[in-house]
Amino acid sequence: MRRPDEPEVQQAKAEVQAFARQGGALVCRVADAEAFTAAPEGFRPADLLPRAKRVVVIGGAPPRAGDWASPVVAQLESMGTSDRINALGLKVAKFIEERFGYYALFVPPGVNKGNRPFLSIALAAELAGCGTRSLAGPVLHPEYGMLFYAAIITTLPLPVDGPLSTPVCPAPECVRMWDAEGTTPCLRVCPIDEGGCLGGTLVEGRLHTRRYDSARCTTRVYTYWIPGFQKALEAALNEPDKERRKMILYSSFFTRTLWSLTYAAQSQGQCYECMRVCPVGLAYRTKK
Known about the structure:
Oligomer: single chain
Shape: globular
Number of strands: 9
Helix content: 40-55%
Number of helices: 14
Strand content: 15-25%
């Protein structure tokens, strides 16, 4: 197979991006498959797809502005939207294979060995320039803030976008708050030294250190879905009292857990409190 020339791959990239945006993506960028040196062996693009050249990253499907504005916190935490971008990722992979004749593999959103993702989607989003990591953890897009991302590994040698040159986090508002109070909106809402999950420091307006209690956060984020089902099932099996066991199995918690398993990302339970107070993307989330 001959190697495509520059005009051909530029046109191919334009078509892929147009297809992704037509399907609902807010951003679509390309990373070099060889740039994933920070990922451990076995969790790099070529480990999933031999001869991988590029990783196409699409982002979108954030909670709607109305979700952020609702005073009922459980509404936002139980209304997952990530499945929408995953469905689009599958379509993009199919489009690349059928339109251009190159391999394209949609990275599944689940986990591989040791509860690691098959490929770090956050790293892929960073390397493609969709945004940069934040004190709170998620990759933040400079305009939209928090987005859900999907990655497609391909042998099609598309032009690479590469990482952003300017960090999105901290936002100017956060720098001013740090200078005045020694904290930021996300650190204040979930302080790691007071039972929360987040910690860190800024130096000269840039992110210097970050602390994150992943185990503590996981117990709060995955309150439903598969981990919630496992926890509740274990509690029910270990409960000797018949009536208490019945309370566990027929509780609203267990009911919502089963609902989340049935509808995948829906009602899986997600804590958005650090993102709720984040100024990045606030203009996009604010409506009349």
